[in-house]
Every structure is written in structure tokens, then in C-alpha cells.
Amino acid sequence: MDDLFSVISGMGNQRMEDIGIPAFIFVISASLISAFAISSLYTYFFTSRATGSQVHRAFPLLSIAITVIFITIQFSLPLSLGLLGALSIVRFRTPIKEPEEIGFIMLVIASSLSCATFNITFTVILAIFSVIALLIMEAVSPLTKGKVHGGMLVIRGPKQQETAAVIETIQNELDISLRKGSLHSVSCEEDICITYVFHKTKNSNINEIISKLLNQYPDFKFNLMVNRTATL
Predict the structure, then answer these.
(1) Model confidence, pTM
(2) CB 3.0–4.6 Å: which of 137, 154, 159, 216 could bond 223 by disulfide?
């Protein structure tokens, strides 16, 4: 019991041979719980808009593996150097598709290292500040809602009797509604195809220009491709 209390209240001064098996099991359990907590945070804040590799599913195994590895090597310099060389051949084949995945992986590593060095207090402090940071991001993100951070609008339709006039009219309408934009390309081989690139604008501006052009040219089709919106 005294060993467990020293692990919980200590600041990383304990040695593995001094704390015993019960305290070791407690440290592994703390690392696993922290991993599940981080996985839950990832799911709550980012899974609804993420297109990543669902990396949070690996957090529990990753956490306990890191904890055990560093508990094993922290008192053996030759073993730690040999393990570092062995791990250098490992490559992650699945690319990280979401920026927040990097942050959450670092959280898992940090919490695992804190548990491995018996800094349970640091793990708790890390968890508190992580939740505060995520809540701040969640509170700030509505500022960017309703905005599109650039994209491309492709307009395609049948040729008209006055094709040049139609293209000029559409371009003028786009320039008025999407002020931070420019004409990218125009094609009139089989049908009219206009590609217009725009920068930061409002969703309402895009909806307005598409509705207006649809009323004027009901036979035309509109394809909209936008960049990912930022969360901060």
C-alpha cells in the first residue's frame, strides 16, 4: 500500500525494483485508462468531421506498449540504445491524414512516458490541460462556421446561340458574388465548361450565385469543390 501511495504522490523518483509488482500493475492500468480517455476525447471532438485513419483505435495498445518499453529500458542504457536502433527500421505505412492525429499521438506518448517514469501527477495535469485546450478549440471553431476557405466552381452546360455573351455574363456574376476569385479556364468544344477558382468567402454567397445562375440557365450543371474549413 505504501508503494502504491509513493507512485501516486511521487514525482518520478521511484525505481522499478523499489515499487514492486502491485505498483507496476497500477502504473500499467493508469496508462491504459489515460489512453481510453484520450481516445474518447478524440472521438468526441473530432470523429464527426475527421477523414483520418481512425488512429484512436490504437491508443490503448500503443499506450501500454510505450509504458512497458520505457519501464524496461529506463535503467539500462545499452538496452535502450539497442532498442532505439531496432525501432529505427519501423515505418508507418498509413499516412496521417488529419493534423489533430499528430497531437493526439503525442498526448498518448506523453501520458505513457509520465506513467512509465511514475509521474502520475503529471499525467493528471496533462489530462486537465488537454481538456481545456480542446474546449477552447471547440468554442473558437464556430467563428469559422458558415465560411468556405477557398475552392473551385465548375459550370457546365450546352452551347448557346451567343456563347461568348453567356460566358461573359456568367463571369461577371461570379466576379460580383465571389470577389476574391478569378477565372481559371473556359472550354467550348462540345459544351460550355467554365472553371472558376475562389478564395475565402461565405456559404451564402455561393448559394446565391448558384441559385441565380440556375434561374438564368436551367440546363447548366454546377460542381463545387471546396477546401477543408479550419477549426481555429
Answers:
(1) 0.55
(2) 154
